[in-house]
Amino acid sequence: MNASLQSAVTNAQKQSTQAVITEQASINNNPSSSTELRVLRIQQVAEKLSIGKSTIYDWLKPNSPRYDETFPKPFKLGGKAIGWLSSEVDAWLLNRVALTRVTDLSEIESDTL
């Protein structure tokens, strides 16, 4: 992995961790506030990102060519159920936007505008 990608991965992991810490601190400091942890199931994550569930599974599998080590890891809810913290998915998405923001419109094919 090149240094630029490694730096992006590290930043994404830091942002994800910071999002959880910030959310937890907010809840701890003001438990009666409207801020609460929101758990997303895989279908909700897929809808939020406008992708298929199979893409999420590919992003999570280290042996997949589509593996994305920056994508938030799910946690067990019980039994076979897994979920993601909404704040972690949001942090990942914001980082993804920042890393891939198109600054030169000539990079976009005219039929996508």
Question: What layout of secondary structure does this protein have?
Answer:
Blueprint: H1 3-29, E1 39-40, H2 42-49, H3 53-60, E2 75-78, E3 81-85, H4 86-100
Antiparallel strand pairs: 1-3, 2-3
Helix pairs in contact: 1-4
Task: Quickly list its features.
single chain, 113 residues, mainly alpha, three-stranded antiparallel β-sheet, 4 helices, 51% helix
Give a brief rundown of this model:
This protein is mainly alpha-helical and about 110 residues long. The protein contains 4 helices and 3 strands. Helix 1 (about 5-30) runs antiparallel to helix 4 (about 85-100).
Helix content: 40-55%
Biggest β-sheet description: 3 strands, antiparallel
> Any idea what the shape is?
globular
Beta-strand fraction estimate: 5-15%
Number of strands: 3
Put simply, the count of helices is 4
Mean pLDDT across residues:
82
Query: Which class best fits the helix and strand makeup?
Result: mainly alpha
Integer tally of domains: 1
Order of SSEs: HEHHEEH
Rg (C-alpha, Å): 16 Å
**Order of strands in the sheet with most strands:** 1-3-2
Low-confidence stretches: none
Q: Regarding quaternary structure, how should these chains be classified?
A: single chain
End-to-end separation in angstroms reads 32 Å
